[in-house]
Specification:
Length: about 210
């Protein structure tokens, strides 16, 4: 082989080596370069891209849902026509009135006996009445019970339930008794008698 041919082959080999080296460097550059690889461009290899994940999901819930998440939390009362708020307030009143009734029964154990019943039955009856009228006081329930006992024999329509219905409609005990057939004077006398009976029962220690 002549010297010229050997020199040509050597140059061709060098060109091939240079070409292969350049191709490998270019491929490596694409794998590590700006944002083309799976690792991402901003030094976040192995993790989610910026702006994705739990923090963004919590922080931008309202924006991403067009405000629907806030509406769902803040408009529960509106969507239920106020029933959720009304139900909570009703439960609070019932609970508060029951606590007062328990205190009254503990402090005045003779009251149930004056009504010819026991504390458990009186408490249970009051609790049932509160389901219909959460504003009903224990004092008015006791008075309605005793009025029905005192007046029922002469006025069959005057019962505890009838009186409680009048109270639930917003009327007073006296007005309810008049609506049930008593005169104004008779209603006052009946209420005074019951108030005296309950007052004496509260004074009793037995």
């Amino acid at each position: 082989m002549s010297k010229f041919v050997r020199k040509g082959a050597y140059l061709a080999f060098l060109c091939l080596v240079v070409l292969l080296s350049a191709t490998g460097a270019f491929a490596q550059g694409r794998g590590k370069g700006g944002g083309g690889g799976r690792g991402g461009g901003s030094g976040s290899a192995g993790g989610p891209p910026p702006g994705v994940g739990v923090d963004r999901g919590l922080g931008n819930a309202s924006s991403r849902s067009g405000g629907r998440s806030d509406d769902g939390l803040n408009n529960a009362s509106t969507k239920s026509n106020g029933r959720s708020d009304a139900g909570l307030e009703r439960a609070r009143k019932q609970s508060s009135n029951m606590r007062r009734a328990d205190d009254d029964l503990r402090d005045h154990p003779a009251v149930p006996r004056a009504l010819h019943t026991n504390a458990n039955d009186l408490r249970a009856g009051y609790q049932a009445a509160l389901a219909t009228n959460p504003d009903l006081t224990f004092g008015n329930y006791v008075a309605a019970t005793r009025l029905g006992q005192n007046l029922g024999s002469r006025h069959p329509n005057i019962t505890r339930d009838a009186i409680l219905n009048g109270l639930a409609s917003g009327r007073s005990v006296g007005r309810t008794l008049q609506d049930l057939g008593l005169s104004e004077r008779e209603a006052k006398d009946a209420r005074k008698r019951v108030d005296d009976e309950i007052k004496n029962a509260k004074k009793s220690k037995n």
